[in-house]
Amino acid sequence: QVQLVESGGGLVQAGGSLRLSCAASGRTFSRSAMGWFRQAPGKEREFVAAISWSGSSTYYGDSVKGRFTISRGNANTVYLQMNSLKPEETAVYYCAADGNSYGTGSSLYTGATYDYWGQGTQVTVSS
Predict the structure, then answer these.
(1) For the segment 60-104, what is each residue's pLDDT rounded down to a tens digit?
(2) What pLDDT, on the 0 to 100 scale, is given for residue 117?
(3) Which of 94, 95, 97 is nearest to 33 (CA)?
(4) 66 by DSSP, 3-state: which?
(5) How many Å apart are CA 123 and CA 92, to the nearest integer?
(6) Strand 10-13 relative to strand 121-126, pairing
(7) In terms of DSSP bridges, do strands 121-126 and 58-60 run parallel, antiparallel, or are they unpaired?
């Protein structure tokens, strides 16, 4: 059974930083893209960042470019470094993994690309 488990969320003041981690188990994602999405109360799920299977390509939502960094540890671990956080970025952050191999490009911005999702970790940014 595939599981994705996020950690690292919490309460931070505006302008602060957090580092989210996602650990996958149950299969290898060494040839699969992984990503982060977020959903605030009453809002639709939003793409945050994605990284290709090799780690050589990264993708970011416009609102986080220059402040967030996605990276991979081993094949089944992905991180999201979030700097200069804003109150409007308060949301549940979800890790996602593509069940197919070698996904790249614009498809990674879409939630439908990802077959596996974590339960989410709450990030609260206070003003």
Answers:
(1) 999 999 999 999 998 999 999 999 999 999 999 999 999 988 888
(2) 98
(3) 97
(4) coil
(5) 6
(6) parallel
(7) unpaired
**What integer best gives the mean pLDDT of the chain?**
96
- Long-range pairs, 78-82, Cβ under 8 A, ≥24: 78/21, 78/22, 78/34, 78/35, 78/36, 78/51, 79/19, 79/20, 79/21, 79/22, 80/19, 80/20, 80/22, 80/36, 80/48, 80/49, 81/17, 81/19, 82/17, 82/18, 82/19, 82/20, 82/123
Contact residues for 45 (Cβ-Cβ < 8 A; gap 6+): 37, 38, 39, 94, 111
Residues whose CB falls within 8 Å of the CB of residue 109, separated by 6 or more in sequence, listed in order: 47, 50, 59, 61
Cβ–Cβ under 8 Å, residues 98 and 112: no
